Amino acid sequence: MAMLILAGAGWGMFNPNGLSAQQTRLVLTSVVFYFFLPAMVLLVLWQAQIGWLSLQYTLLGVTSIAVSLILCWLVIRLFRIKNRQSGALILAAAFPNVTYLGLPILEQVYGSWSRSVVIQIDLFSVAPVVYTIGVMLARHYGEDPTEKRKSMLAFLNAPPFWAAFLAVTLNLMQVTVPDWLIGFLQKCSSAVAPLMIFSLGMALNWKAIRFGNLPYVIPVVCIKLFAMPAVAMLLASKMSMGAEYRSAAVLDIAMPSMILGIVLCDRYKLDSSLYATSVAITTGLSVFSLPFWYGIL
User: Fewer CB atoms inside 10 Å of the end CB: C or N, the chain?
Assistant: First the structure.
């Protein structure tokens, strides 16, 4: 995985065929988002055990995010941080990279069954909160460049959610997946993890790290890599899910800051440089924090 991340970073250094990392990453992530990821969502959720466990994933993800938001808000109030920096810090501290980093890591650590954990945490808790509460906070601390604001429920109009709705419907109707379709979906699913990791390497902009941003990143590191997983582990210990599912869910929530937040920072004119620094540093430190939490779990 480290080699794939370095390969993605190397693309940004050499720009093969004149294609920049930003251009190439946009194409790769678009292909994953519109084709390969929906195929995986359809395969996994069609065969997953959907029920009380899914509700527990939702509760675990939403509660962990809520506590992190409150902690970051207290830090902002205490140190009287300006709005542009405050919005970037809240997004970086509260929302983990559950899919683009969590999916390949959990699949390697626990096996293919953990795909269901990642997808349900993302689709049923993290993504809805990002596109509702996250957008509201970005608007509050930043500024909306457009007069017409899109509905906060617009995130539902996306291929992964269409695939999830179809898969859950077929699952609850107890429709069996045809063998030929399983083969096709498995081939598509196998492309998701390497493309995600390669794209992650392209997205990490280590040049964006600025010395002046480092003091702001300290609370993000403390909340994102330590406080949030601790809250998730404490809450998960009170739930009825099995030990393996509990471990996978908490480790997924312990992932570093999500890369998607840079899009919200750019759109609402928050401090994008500070957010990029937070992503780069939390991702680098996750090399140590993730094994730490895995050992405890």
Answer: N
